[in-house]
Amino acid sequence: MIGLRRFFAVLGARNREFLRDRMALSWNIILPVLIVIGFAFAFNSDDDHLFKVGILGQDDRATTFMETAYTQFIPVTDLPSAITKVERHQLGMLVDLETFRYWINDTSSSGYVLEKLMRATDLRPEKQLVSGEQIRYVDWLIPGVLGMNIMFSSLFGVGYVIVRYRKNGVLKRLKATPLSALEFLSAQVASRLWMITLFTCLVYAGTNLLVGFRMNGSYLPLLLVLLCGTLSMISLGLIIAARMNNEEAANGLLNLISWPMMLLSGVWFSLEGSPALIQQLALLLPLTHMTTAARAVMIDGAGLMDIGWHLMVLTLMTVVFMTIGARTFRWE
Amino acid sequence: MSTVLEARGLVKKFGEIHAVNGVSFAIERGRCFGLLGPNGAGKTTTVEMIEGTLAPTAGDTLYLGSPIDAQFRRDAGIMFQSTALQDYIRVREALQLFQDFYPESRPLDELIERCALGEFLDRDVQRLSGGQRQRVLLAIALVNDPNILFLDEPTTGLDPQSRRNFWQLIQDIKAENKTVVLTTHYMEEAYELCDEIAIMDHGRLIAQGTPTALLEKHFDNAIVSLPAEQVPDRVDLHPARLQRRNGLVEIFSGDLDTSIRQLMDQGVPLAQLQIRSRTLEDLFLELTGHDLRS
User: Fold this and answer.
1) What is the pLDDT at residue B69?
2) Contacts of A56 (CB under 8 A, 6+ apart)
3) Is A162 on the interface with B (CB under 8 A)?
4) Interface predicted TM-score of the whole assembly (ipTM), two decimals
């Protein structure tokens, strides 16, 4: 069984090592904040100049309106999701030519202008009003950046660090003591989980202070998503750490895992329009579940029941990864 | 005396290479057992097998008559040839960390005093000098008050002063009736510290015994040396043997009186003559045919 004194000794030592490594520490905090600020400014200007109108169905009466300059008319097929986009200011207006209704957001300036423009033509559908605050790209990006930061920190903080310990002989020395592999590994996992949770909270608070983003859900489900997600990534790191004794090779392998995962998990852009195969593939990645569930909580205000299956998948992944990692672990 | 540790037919192969090829020995309680040999002789591989950190290809090791187990881990103190500690750890924290691994341990204050760590207790381990670092690693190896202490080339790379200090530490530990296993390629170190030595070369033991017994067994002679230019090429000495090395002529003689008389008779000037008794260094040369550090 686990000796608590030995467990806490390793846990404390690893925490101190992490906190004293100034370079890695700044990397863990500054990078995600910079990314978020960068994107908050980069995506602030362009989209506002262009009006976007969703059009469902076809009707000749709309021809004149649809010739309006500086306005993009986007054909839509799914009414409910298009209405949500109006609520989030992703569409300035939605016109359903089949039931002859239109939707604008009462808090959207472009909706107001587009309504005036439409009334100047012959088009007079029935008005439907929705409300909702604008979803900026940065609001959508935050959960992804938090997830990405957690992924890199988990994989490298466990995978790379234990491989380095093995290479320079730290593990060999520990092996010669009564410390068991289980005590050592669980202390590594606990240390990383605790540090990542702490730093994710700091990054969350820091970016919120700087750019101010939406949080429509409650904190408990968000915290659960982050904890389950972090554990699954740390466990994945344990598999890398189990046997390798070459830092460069471990680094390469960790990059090979983390970069495609970052691109395929919808951190930067939505996978909605991607091929079905990619979307299926993305579901195998823990980061996908973490980012999707965190977005659901933060943007849609989803509760525990709504994100339950993501939490279950993450937990299952954790169990599988951790079993493989612990079973294959060798001190040398 | 009772046997503490026994190695039985240890073999270690790395691929096709036999790093250790059938090594057996027994270590008695309270003795300092030295494993000697040049770099690459298989000392470290052997000692890691008896420490239980490296699995042998064949053979086994018994600690107090049973295979190496949890009891051994609690009783053994180990100082590897290149022990690494994690980054950003301070001396006091490292001692504390290792102390927490053991159910029973020595008071840290006593270790700190004994190994003279007081001056740099709060310094990062990475920023210690060679001698300081070795003392910290020795303190860590002693933290569990071990019955048996393994030291793998503990003074390699230390300056002579630090080496002498380190030897004194080991002498103190020996005085507590602890069993010490020491590997070294310094013959002087082995002579100073070891009660028994085993000499290794090419993965095998080639001699074993107390230092004095080994010297007596292999050498019945002393070495007389003279500057090479003062000794004619065709000097006639019986029954001694001559060897020219490093600008000296070394005369290995079992009968010093006769050899010196013969030199005088042949007009060799003896003003710079030196006589020394044989050392483990010579023994090694004699046994392996090559220098210890070549």
Assistant:
1) 87
2) A75, A76, A77, A79, A82, A94, A95, A96, A97, A98
3) no
4) 0.81
